[in-house]
């Protein structure tokens, strides 16, 4: 499961000062706690639960489950009989019991430098209670679903915590998604209310969010689903005096009495404000409702297995899956992973660059940090606006100590070299983290050496929307790091590697990554579709949770994620990981980023078609193509030699940075029918990629 000892060579260690103060400071301590979490889970999680408030205690077994579809319905139950409220634990407890009312909960950093806001725990609690009362005034009650479609503003956190305070279930839709995507999610979860904003800027690009929200509601109506209430936040404000008495647009967002910096932070002086459509039969103004609401709201006490939120993730059928998480297990798991993986200390300033529209933002911007009373940076912007030094400017501005971002952002910034990073001090940084996909060793080394100055351990975390929190991860002071490895399982997590026949493989091996038993934060079902839940995650290998990812375990017991199983290519009978080929390409100094897909081949079954984005100043030519093919051949073997390598100045990515490989496969095959591309951050790259397409005649 985990090795008796860890290697001393070819690994990276945290410095002595960090190890001395860490929560888990040696591999021996990690192993001791890990074994306790597996052998005595009631005691392990029971001890952690003592740090939280419970209206009623749990009864019976702490954790009950069935992972075997041949033995009946799949289920996971944690702390049955207990009742609590997650908002109470995140806010009331920190303000009243821990006396953290004046501590900063969020430093909000807007898209424009200088557009900023500071929110304390007391102020956040006040606003959450006010908005919870707003929701109740609109008829929202325990168990109702509320759709939230908002930019990265403090009000997004307020809305989600207001929902859980009254026992409502939030369904947050990433603000980069299309009207079609929003309407599909609203209808699937049968939401009774939509919360949105007028619009926002992402770098130079204006997103007119209210127009998209209205279009989504129209699509819902066209399919027979009526949602007749939409609360809109005026984020891109006009000065109050510019709103005439007869205006159909709601009044501009004015300062909350307790947030003195609000006015300065909200008024965009250099940007055009979108024209906001307003339907008085449906639309309600956030400010008008909030200003009339009381700032006292008793929490709704919820059972442990009551629904907390629904978050949609991609499905292999094309229809998104509504992943359902529940109250107690998710609360304990996100709080514990945040505390131990980032080695959280009370004086830390933590920054996760993700969007709350994704699971990373749910778990490691909102729930995990607030459960620990942490101070976080909430960032509306992008890494390259107004210049490529923005992230490091923010790190210095707020003296960020723990920094968590995606490999795609790291590779993007690598293109510009070390100078934009080294222009800033970054001396406050202590721990770096990565999330979203496996990080290739070259990007890891750059992150470690350039961003962290060779002194900050990197926690390369593997997890999914479905897992709720980290499942494979280093602990910064306890586990020596191997660049690109997800290292070892977190407490309570029991991984295994299976072959195609479902047999567990021992020692160094490669195959399907599965988990043998649940942990508190794992998903409970697919909303409204238990059969899809069981088919997707448990049917292929009864008795195991199937991640859908390939994994390799090396001779030292370290786990390496090789990519989605559906990102495996079968070339002449050999399974090749696209992630492995991409890593080999990116090791070349000319390549900043690579994406590999398969296309049909009459002889080999599949062939490798590679897209490469080059570092600044490098020209793509035949000589470089030959070099890159040679590099892959030498790193992996002749069987992995790419058939086609295409210059890709840009790759089709979502606004969260995920590469849309579905589109790349279409381009590789010369197919113009791309389907919905509205979620792309920059759709203009698609035509450029078609123009640069390789001649694929065989």
TrEMBL record:
Residues 580-658 form the AMP-binding enzyme C-terminal domain. One of its GO terms (cellular component) is cytoplasm. Keywords: ATP-binding, Ligase, Lipid metabolism, Nucleotide-binding. Residues 30-89 form the Acetyl-coenzyme A synthetase N-terminal domain. One of its GO terms (biological process) is lipid metabolic process. It holds the Pfam family ACAS_N. One of its GO terms (molecular function) is ATP binding. Residues 98-525 form the AMP-dependent synthetase/ligase domain. Coiled coil: none annotated. Its EC number is 6.2.1.1, 6.2.1.17. It catalyses: propanoate + ATP + CoA = propanoyl-CoA + AMP + diphosphate; acetate + ATP + CoA = acetyl-CoA + AMP + diphosphate. InterPro entries: ACAS_N, AMP-bd_C, AMP-bd_C_sf, AMP-binding_CS, AMP-dep_synth/lig_dom, ANL_N_sf. Residues 255-265 have a biased composition (Basic and acidic residues). Residues 239-272 are annotated as: Disordered. Belongs to the ATP-dependent AMP-binding enzyme family. This is Propionate--CoA ligase. It comes from Cynoglossus semilaevis.
